[in-house]
Amino acid sequence: MSLSPSVVGSLSRAGLDPAGVEATVRAALAEDLRWGPDVTTAATVDPLVTAVGEVRSRAAGVLAGLPVALAVLDAAGIDPAGASLALADGDRVAPGQLVAELRAPLAGLLTAERTLLNFLTHLSGVATTTRAWVDAVAGTACEVRDTRKTLPGLRELEKYAVRCGGGVNHRLGLGDAALVKDNHVAAAGSVAAAVAAVRAVAPEVPLEVECDTLAQVEEALAAGVGLVLLDNMTPGEVRAAVALRSSHPGARLEASGGLTLASVAEVAAAGVDFVAVGALTHSSPALDLGLDLPAPSDPGTTRPPDPGIS
After folding, report:
1. CA–CA separation, 280 and 298 (whole Å)
2. CB-side neighbour CA atoms (13 Å) of 258
3. 55 lies in a domain?
4. Residue 105: inside a domain, yes or no?
5. Are residues 87 and 159 in the same domain?
6. What is the extent of the structural domain holding 30?
7. Catalytically active residues, by annotation
8. Residue 207 · residue 178 · CB < 8 Å
């Protein structure tokens, strides 16, 4: 790993794997340079010019991805010490508000600009959508969780963005928790059989069972399952499942499927512990952020003096 200690520390404090983030941002930068160097910048920008660019929001939202943006700069050969952050991940941002100032060689900054903004706008979009769902269930004990419906290669970053928006993470992969779904039940023969099979193979792994009917909920609770997912159930069915849970202290319920921002408050108020929302990561629009650079004659752009002139 070749990221600077300051960037590694920033990523680690955010709960991100520095090596994984470095690999991701380097792959993104390489994608832009696959067919050669930045010919437009090379043709129009003096390589000795330094500029101060401003990252500003063009819409209201919640920020996520600033440590990743620093990693992009670092991986692009730009000293991250030249970045001054005005806000932090998880902060709400208003249209026109300053997010960061970036002092760097102008050529390098223009080459890294799109990659930096791609991460920052996408992750901030996930955080913004998550915050809307969290606000929608405010006043209840229900928490908003994500799913594995993430963009390939970006799961760790997208789940980090969910946390920035106030949500909580579900399992990161297939090995840190077991989720018995309808196809597993079909393969095993019943909910109880599937639960017994998972416990026999991986007794130490947290177990959740997806149920399509109240009869399956009863079967899962009778089998001692500690977390039951209510899949595409109506608010009335959710309330009935909560009533069934009352005789199984410690069991938790999660509602998923068919939820909207308009309907989730009713489901949360019914007494579920979680709502799982795949849209947090698979359908969140990007938050509009821009990097604005000064014109070459502006005070924010400087060129070192020619050593040959006295």
Report:
1. 41
2. 12
3. yes
4. yes
5. no
6. 5-132+286-302
7. 114, 149, 181, 210, 231
8. yes
